[in-house]
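for the recovery benchmark. tokens below, seq after
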């Protein structure tokens, strides 16, 4: 078990397409593993093995799965093409859906960590002779290593969802990064106009991007308005106080059916105490701060709020254009703020704040058209179902994204405070069922121009 350590002075650089040396790849893998262990260092055996919620795996399963995925792609696959189904049964997500993982016979942490170390040693050994320049597509520019890195980053966010749902004593974060001050004063609900026209979205990058972000495509957008900030707790409280959860006309049929069954009256992790509302983030319970983005709402709640506000959710293309397209220069930005890799003053990413920040806390986190905070704090629900872009080709395995295409899943964009910076960018696509609220999800609204 690694000991708790201070956060690194410099952000990780692996995950950036320009860094493909073996030393950088190895450093990136080590840094990702340090974070994973840092998150779980304080957990007891029961904390690690218990299924805290039917939606989540026991934390020790996530650890074993991280290692099994790494072994599959960075050892076995480099010696000959494999199928995703070859992942060892215990850690194969398709063989064992989350709700049954609590019943699996899972090894103890020390055993899992020994397996992780043994796999990592073989991975580093194999890396010595890997051709990262002229090798097959999977290896070129270190893609497969970055894919495995991102997989670990993504499971770290999943583990944090589990820790927020933890049974027993609440989780105490190992560190708590302070949030920046002062901040820009922004008017919640203010909108900015996107002029429409031809935009380029998606990417052709093959060093970092997942298959579902490719290929880059050109599309025509009608002009639209979009919120300058994510919807805040203050705005959401207005929706609640105005009967938002009781007004049938604000909800779709599916949304009303969900609401009737779920019987909720607030975002997840909110509690009513006497005169007002509080929310809990890990071990901290605090009165609702109206200046923070609302978090832990499902797609149906976001959609109902938008109707209440006389607005709608943005389509995925509108969201990405508002985050990345500069209409003045007809160019696309990798991040809303430009080309620079993430650093702590740019956006609330990288987990260690263990909470959202008030809107406007990151004055440089502004897109070309003037949207704040599109990356960081909360994932943002969009109106769109998950689908492949025109010309989509699964790579390197169908089960990463193509298996999920269809109307069952809604797309979320932009990452949350619990997202590692190497696992988000303007083109990055996340998805989930429209009823999910354990994720760090919020939204912003749009409107036709
Ligand atoms: Fe996974």
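predicted aa per position
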């Amino acid at each position: 078990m690694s000991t708790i350590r201070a956060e690194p002075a410099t952000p990780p650089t692996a995950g950036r397409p320009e860094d493909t040396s073996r030393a950088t790849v190895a450093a990136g893998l080590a840094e990702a593993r340090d974070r994973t262990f840092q998150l779980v260092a304080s957990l007891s055996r029961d904390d690690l093995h218990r299924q805290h919620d039917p939606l989540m795996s026991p934390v020790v399963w996530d650890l074993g799965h991280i290692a099994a995925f790494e072994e599959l792609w960075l050892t076995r696959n480099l010696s000959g093409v494999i199928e995703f189904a070859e992942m060892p049964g215990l850690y194969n997500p398709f063989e064992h859906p989350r709700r049954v993982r609590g019943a699996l016979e899972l090894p103890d942490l020390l055993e899992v960590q020994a397996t992780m170390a043994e796999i990592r040693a073989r991975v580093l050994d194999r890396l010595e002779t890997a051709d990262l320049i002229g090798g097959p597509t999977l290896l070129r520019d270190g893609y497969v290593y970055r894919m495995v890195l991102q997989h670990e980053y993504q499971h770290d966010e999943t583990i944090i969802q589990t820790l927020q749902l933890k049974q027993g004593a609440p989780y105490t974060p190992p560190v708590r990064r302070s949030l920046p001050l002062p901040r820009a004063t922004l008017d919640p609900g203010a909108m900015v106009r996107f002029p429409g026209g031809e935009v380029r979205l998606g990417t052709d990058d093959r060093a970092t991007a997942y298959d579902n972000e490719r290929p880059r495509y050109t599309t025509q957008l009608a002009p639209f308005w979009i919120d300058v900030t994510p919807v805040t707790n203050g705005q959401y409280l207005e929706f609640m106080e105005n009967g938002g959860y009781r007004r049938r006309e604000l909800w779709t049929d599916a949304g009303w059916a969900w609401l009737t069954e779920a019987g909720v009256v607030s975002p997840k992790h909110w509690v009513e105490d006497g005169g007002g509302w509080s929310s809990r983030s890990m071990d901290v319970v605090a009165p609702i701060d109206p200046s923070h983005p609302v978090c832990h709402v499902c797609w149906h709640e976001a959609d109902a709020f938008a109707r209440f506000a006389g607005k709608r959710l943005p389509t995925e293309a509108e969201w990405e254009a508002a985050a990345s397209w500069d209409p003045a220069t007809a160019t696309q930005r990798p991040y809303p703020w430009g080309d620079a890799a993430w650093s702590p003053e740019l956006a609330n990413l990288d987990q260690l704040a263990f909470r959202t920040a008030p809107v406007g806390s990151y004055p440089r986190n502004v897109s070309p058209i003037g949207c704040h905070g599109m990356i960081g704090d909360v994932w943002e629900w969009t109106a769109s179902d998950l689908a492949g872009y025109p010309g989509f080709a699964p790579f390197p395995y169908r089960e990463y994204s193509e298996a999920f295409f269809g109307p069952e899943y809604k797309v979320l964009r932009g990452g949350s405070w619990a997202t590692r910076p190497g696992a988000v960018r303007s083109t990055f696509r996340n998805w989930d069922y429209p009823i999910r609220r354990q994720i760090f999800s919020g939204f912003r609204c749009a409107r036709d121009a």
